[in-house]
Design a protein that fits this description.
mainly beta; flat; RHS Repeat protein; seven-stranded antiparallel beta sheet; 0% helix; 104 residues; single chain
């Protein structure tokens, strides 16, 4: 529980005008941050990402642990390709409402 109370006194000295602000109280926030869970397998990659009990991302990896695909729960798919030296060669997206996108 976090409660913030702030007292501010402000006086304006012009023709006997005085303003005074005594207290600003911020409401208590009861909201909690969502819990994001990551399921891991032996290559230390994350095949699933969940928000609460809902899976929001499912991923596949190659034998070297590089992410190949990522499928989001909104239907968007991401596919990655790599160069021989393991650097990222390209990323393509499909299923997005704005169309498809390719990098690389």
């Amino acid at each position: 529980m976090l409660r913030m109370t702030q007292s501010v006194h402000h006086h304006i000295d012009a023709s006997d005008i005085t303003e005074s602000f005594h207290r600003v109280q911020y409401p208590e926030r009861q909201e909690r941050q969502p819990v994001i869970r990551h399921a891991q397998h032996d290559l230390r990659s994350m095949p699933t990402v969940a928000l609460g009990s809902t899976t929001i991302d499912t991923r596949t990896y190659d034998d070297g642990g590089r992410m190949l695909t990522s499928v989001y729960n909104n239907g968007v798919s991401e596919t990655r390709t790599y160069n021989v030296d393991n650097t990222l060669a390209g990323i393509s997206y499909s299923g997005a409402s704005i169309g498809n996108y390719t990098y690389g």
